[in-house]
Q: What sequence folds into this?
């Protein structure tokens, strides 16, 4: 039995984090962060540098693994079976920006323009000395997220020697992986079926709003929201190896091999923790032109502390960290599945020479992807052309406001196009950060290999492969620079159109490797008697 525990503490902490309450030390009320408040200067003296750093965060992944397997041979059966149990915890300790970031420029101490047209006076350092900020911001979290998940698997394998020249392999593996969720439910996701109280349409609230994990008023009743556990990861394996007992010159010294198996990959997380904190993080801020955004002597103004369980709080948000919601569909908890199959013919041409030829194929589904576009405009509306750019208040607009608050919410962005998206209360809905599994791939290859076993000082291996890899998941993993960050698929309503040659597709591959032992030295063809000359040749070769 194997038992293992791993813990990694990875932090990014400013040097000022030493247990001092810097906000209280400098007399700034209304904030209590562990870092010295970051101070920046804009305009005026160009050599003024920023002071302080907001960083005070750490990621702490923990894992516990318990695994055991048993091997048993009985007659013509070689049996093996076992279990693999894993528990994971990913803690996010984030106290960054809890001390306010303070910005100063010349405008807070500027006078009237000079008569000679010399421009405004004022200086950012003077603004700093009087405590008049041009901007300020901070972040306060009601929880430090602690994401948990688990993995359970069991398997059984039987290698059965059915006949002297026939080996059969049978196996079955069953596994369950629970998607990561915040242990206390302190996270939120977009729900396409939840009424939005901030988007009242002609027939009542539009569907599509935030839901919050945990128990209590305004919460879903469960800590596990978003992706649901998939319980059908059954992986059969079957294979054979057959050497015909025949005197035929075509079958003598020939072996046939083949097999089929289903495998499941692990769930792949991106910025899972930080993307699902809407409602559990407050980010008060302020900015101004000539009047101070904040006088330091007055302290940070009062703000509603988190949590905020308003389902409509992200209305009008753009997503991707710009105020919009994040969608983690229940189906995203299904791991990627890969079907592999192969057939090979191997023939011994001579005592030292073996030729192999075969076919390998695979088909994968539910791969990590960046194809979503939950709130994409249906291409059926594209024939409207420039009409899509009209405001819904324009007399020529073919559509009315989809909900009462639409125009006040969007203002100059209250367009026909925005009114026609599936969830017009949002500019965008993010879905690519957290487990999106809409990708697929196909791989087919023909392989030929010639191998010369080590003989007379020479070992040789030559292989040639013709293959094709098709996929629609290159944009997610691996994150090649030319593909990652390219946004969603060109048409989220027709994902089949995304299938194309993979970035990793290599149509033809030829590999030649060899090892040659020079015939020099004791027992070899040259300088076999040794001596000074023989030793020198061995060193030189």
A:
């Amino acid at each position: 039995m194997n038992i293992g525990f791993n813990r990694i503490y990875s932090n990014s902490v400013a040097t000022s984090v030493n247990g001092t309450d810097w906000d209280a030390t400098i007399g700034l009320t209304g904030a209590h962060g562990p870092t010295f408040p970051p101070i920046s200067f804009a305009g005026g003296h160009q050599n003024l540098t920023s002071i302080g750093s907001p960083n005070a965060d750490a990621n702490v992944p923990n894992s516990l693994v318990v695994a055991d397997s048993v091997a048993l041979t009985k007659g013509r059966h070689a049996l093996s079976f076992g279990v693999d149990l894993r528990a994971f915890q990913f803690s996010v300790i984030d106290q960054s920006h809890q001390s306010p970031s303070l910005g100063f420029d010349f405008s807070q101490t500027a006078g009237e323009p000079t008569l000679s047209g010399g421009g405004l006076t004022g200086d950012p350092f003077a603004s700093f000395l009087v405590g008049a900020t041009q901007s300020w911001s901070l972040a306060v979290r009601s929880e430090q997220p602690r994401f948990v998940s688990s993995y359970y698997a069991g398997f059984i394998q039987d290698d059965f020697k059915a006949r002297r020249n026939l080996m059969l392999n049978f196996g079955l593996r069953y596994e369950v992986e629970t998607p990561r969720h915040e242990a206390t439910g302190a996270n939120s996701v977009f729900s396409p079926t939840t009424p939005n109280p901030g988007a009242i349409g002609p027939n009542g609230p539009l569907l599509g709003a935030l839901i919050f994990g945990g128990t209590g008023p305004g919460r879903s009743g469960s800590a596990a929201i978003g992706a649901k556990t998939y319980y059908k990861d059954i992986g059969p394996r079957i294979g054979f190896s057959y050497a015909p007992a025949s005197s035929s010159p075509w079958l003598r010294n020939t072996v046939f091999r083949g097999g089929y198996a289903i495998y499941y990959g692990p769930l792949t997380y991106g910025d899972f923790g930080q993307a699902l904190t809407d409602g559990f993080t407050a980010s008060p801020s302020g900015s101004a032109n000539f009047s101070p955004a904040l006088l330091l002597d007055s302290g940070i103004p009062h703000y509603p502390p988190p949590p905020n369980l308003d389902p409509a709080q992200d209305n009008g948000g753009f997503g991707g960290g710009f105020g919009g919601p994040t969608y983690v569909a229940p189906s995203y908890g299904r791991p990627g599945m890969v079907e592999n199959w192969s057939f090979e013919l191997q023939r011994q041409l001579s005592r030292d020479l073996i030729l192999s030829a075969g076919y390998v194929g695979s088909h994968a589904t539910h791969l990590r992807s960046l194809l979503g576009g939950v709130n994409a405009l249906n291409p059926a509306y594209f024939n409207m052309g420039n009409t899509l750019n009209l405001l819904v208040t324009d007399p020529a607009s073919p559509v009315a406001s989809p909900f009462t608050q639409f125009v006040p919410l969007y203002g100059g962005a209250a367009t026909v196009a925005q009114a026609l998206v599936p969830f017009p209360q949002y500019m965008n809905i993010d879905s690519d950060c957290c487990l999106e599994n809409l990708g697929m791939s196909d791989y087919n290859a023909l392989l030929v290999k010639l191998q010369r076993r080590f003989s007379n000082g020479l070992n040789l291996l030559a292989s040639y492969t013709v293959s094709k890899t098709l996929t629609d998941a290159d944009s997610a993993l691996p994150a090649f620079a030319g593909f990652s960050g390219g946004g969603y698929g060109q048409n989220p309503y027709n994902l089949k159109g995304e299938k194309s040659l993979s970035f990793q597709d290599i149509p033809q591959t030829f590999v030649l490797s060899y090892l040659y032992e020079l015939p020099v030295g004791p027992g070899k063809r040259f300088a076999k008697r040794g001596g000074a000359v023989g030793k020198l040749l061995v060193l030189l070769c």
